[in-house]
Design brief:
This protein is α+β, with helices and mostly antiparallel strands. It is built from 11 helices and 15 strands.
Amino acid sequence: MGRPIPPSWPSSPTTAHRVGRRQRRRIARSLRGPGPRRRVSWLTWVLVAVLALLVLVVSAGVGLYVRVERQLRHTDAVAAYAGRPAAGRGTNWLLVGSDSRAGLTPRQRRELHVGNDQVQNTDTIMVLHYGEHGPTLVSLPRDSYVPIPGHGSRKINEAYADGGPELLTRTVEQATGLRIERYAEVNFLGVVQIVDALDGVRLCLAEPLRDERSGADFPAGCRRMDGAQALAYVRARYADPEGDLGRVRRQRQLIGAVADELAGSEAFLDPFRFRRALDAVLTAVTVDRGAEVSDALDLGWAMKRIFGGDGVATTVPVRQPSAFVSGSGSVLLWDENGAKRLFQSLRNDDPIPTSADK
């Protein structure tokens, strides 16, 4: 027999239906016994979905990590020797762009305006430092006149031809007083392949640039350049009134453009484009024997910070951009006092002097 409805309750059918529904819920709870309700809330489903997505992302990340680790190429570049600078604070990378013609087809040689000679010099030499005060990228112009161990004073880019990555690393260490922990190198063909994998990069010129020896022929303004055009742009120096100093600025500009493309949303939203770019980078880049994938990720993150405005890109202070030295031709001389202050700041992981020339 059902529970009588109190006189104070309205005896309408609607009210009776609500009372019956309450009674059924109470009975169901009594049959279920004590404890929390078992209905799954919307919040639970959201958490399950998020965790499932996290598992998928981690799985993809692990697979990507393993793939990069398997494809990353290594070379002998960092070695111990008597008189090597002691380790300072932070981490120092030597970043090198070699003008090796290896792997170029005859057509690519014509398009890139390079001959058949097998030169092994370096067009780009940079020191990347990062520590507690953020990353700093310092360009060392290729015509810098410095002592090369065992070869006397010569242009710094000749160290690579004389003894490969190990001698170049040692030369930079001796010239700067910094210990180089890590090394990364990319060649002509690598630059072309990376830029082409990104479907080009956007570069802006304040003034027209024409250099027959590099193949550069660009009007002022912004344009999207393919790999061959971008390489011609950064190699040009004979028509540039700033010579080698102008070239290092364009090199940093290209690195920044590539970093923007790699870090942009389009690279991640288009998996095929991202895979092409990743494969091109892994094919083009060679690192030292001790470098691991985590080191390469640190390098990429530091470069992204620099060209995102959270770091400093500069050139070693210069005393004389064009001096003639018998046997070496036109060379670039550092401002010894300014260079010493700059590299001492990096060694101590201090903010670099404000007088550094960007």
